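Recap for those who missed Tuesday's class. We walked through two folding examples back to back. For each one, the amino acid string is listed first and its predicted structure tokens come directly after. Nothing is annotated here on purpose, so try labeling regions yourself before you check the end of the notes.
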Amino acid sequence: MKLEERMARLEEEMNETRRVLTVIAHRFGVLSESAFREAMKYVVEEKLGVGKVSKMSLRDEEGIVYGYPSIIDIDVVVKDDKHILVEVKSRVSRGDVYEIYRIGKLYEKIKGVKPVLVIVGGFIGPEAYEAAARLGVEIKPAIKES
């Protein structure tokens, strides 16, 4: 086996190892949603100074989000007149996309402002990207896979 082939194989194995370690880290909470949320808040508020991040609880009396009355918690970034609802997930599914879409509908009804909807996620399934494109939800990967 030539040196170039061995190097390419080693690089491929290293990339696969990185993916496995990332999966394990997510699975066991090493990269927790709450830690990522706090980091996001720090960057948006203190480093960039572009907005205020807050946790908001919305009362869903009509069951818009889950089909029955409930309290909905969501992270909100307000910058000027723009309201951005942000959900942080280690894994993002089609259901997560639909959930934030419905939370956006509830927010708009209560606050009278159509929010921008964003999900930041570690692992994002292809069906989540498809749902996001159809529903107008932005998905941002938290981890770039090679």
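Example two. Treat it independently of the first, because the proteins are unrelated.
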Amino acid sequence: MDDALRPAPDASYEAQLARAPMGPDDVALAEQMIHRPLRGESAAAVRCAWGLPAVLRVRPALDDGTPFPTLFWLSCPLAGKHVARIEARGEMAGLNERLAAEPELAAAYAAAHERYLATRDQLGPKVPKDPSAGGMPGRVKCLHSLYAHHLATRDNPIGEWVAEQVEPMPCPAPCVSLEGRAP
């Protein structure tokens, strides 16, 4: 498929707040996709064209109270590889320069950060020190989380830039086995 990953059709903070936690089938798929057990209660924030949970919305704190590092987790292995290539080229340095030189971009990024925090705080216990994801609001640190934020809400200008670099993202087959999955 040439259009395997795009923002959720209902991409918004409101839609993300309404997402129910994933059931056992989706949890098993997500764990296969990220190659380890999920650490926190997660919802499928965005599904790929194959119906897989490509972005997870994770509760802000784990069961033991430990803060989880990001609200939106890019679980699609193909997208992760494409974004890793951008990071490996050192694009974050140029994006940080743009944030410093372009007040409109910096303001949009900071505003997205505030909406991100407000949404995160509605999902669970408030995380101390208001850490955000991906370096928000003042720098670009992790393009994976910024792209996941964009896919889930359409509200991250740096994540939107990442989308312009990696989409369309052809995906010829599901990345995990769908055998035994409930319809």
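Answers for example two:
The radius of gyration is 16 Å.
The beta strands are 42-47, 53-58, 72-74.
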